[in-house]
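Work through this protein:
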Amino acid sequence: MCSDQSRACYNPWYVLSTIWGEHNDVIDDRTHDRNRSTWNGLVGAAYTPEKRKKFATEYKINLSEIEPLSPAERDSVERRLKTRLGSGAMLPDLLKTPNFRNLHFWRPYSVEGFVFPAGADFSGSKFDFCFRGSAFFVGWLGFHNCDFQEVLFRKPASLYGRTEFTESKFYKAAKFIELEAKEAADLVFASCNFFDKFDLSLILAPKSSIYLDGSVFHDHVTIESNRIGVNFSMSEVTFKRFFPQLSGNKIIGGLELPYDAHKFPSFSKEDAEYVSNFYFKCADMMRKRSRHRESVFFRNQALDSRKYFGGGLSRLFFTGYGLLSRYGSSVKRPLLYLLVVIVLPVPIYFMHFAPACISIMRDFSNICAPIFFDAVLNSFLISLLSLAFVRELLGLTPHLELPPPVSYVSVIQSLVSVVLLMLLVDALNRLRL
């Protein structure tokens, strides 16, 4: 017996959808089938035969599913409605949007296979048990600020229009399996919290859009799609514990993911290879869509995660690659390091080459440079004189042979400069592309 006015048993739409009985701990399929047949029969009765046939054809619904109730069946439904709600209860108009707002569903609830010709609104409702929503929804379907336990949408569910789950919490597994989104249908999970597994398997039509923007996933996420070119946005999404599994016979072409490393979870060394492959897949998708900034971000993350698997040389290589040029995405870093490599050994070279530098500068300063360029040219000349072939070319080799410590510095400087120049060329080439 209902005592709380917010409970669904006071709502005429809920009572009509459970006219032959509510469910207890689990959903009883026999009772559910009877409820569905009655609901759909009342929907069919609201149309003329011609409109009913057109509606079934347009939305690919089996015509027998919306076969009108007989007068005797309708009278039986009205009597049961009045028994549960009072003598003044009237059958609601099923061509209008059913209002399930702010209800407390304290028992399992299923609308699987029901036909909603004008969508439905469940905003603000709380579901204490399983909710099966695998219905035929035409128009807007709203779940704003809802609390769910287990949720299941599966075949033969079809969405025509916009379905919104916004600012809702899913405390147990949320499964949307082989869900059909018809042409121009939008499926939105915005700013939702998923505390258990989230499975989304989609059969998408062209121009469909899927949005998971701003949602937080605390457990496993599996997303599968059959179609390329669909808009699929996961901007500002946070994955708390696991990286998402993206699969399907055609990878989603319109995918957008969070471009912030802090939105992804930390991972163990055992998962590093999977994480790296995941990031590479994302980078490839962004590259195909000419999204350079996002492609670079995911490529950098993929290479960064490679530090955690492979041998010591591999770890050293990727660590150095990231430190010196951000994996080829930075032009400034190799330039800066190159400048540092040139400037740092100058004091050492100056101790050995100062007399020659002063002599050469005395010969050229009157012709080549004003006074304020002397320091710059002097440093440049000192760096050049550190190279053996330059000293030999100038005929200074006998007088300017380097002692071993300075020679080692010169060799290291040359090798590091070559590496930095290669990284600079790599970065410039990637920038050009």
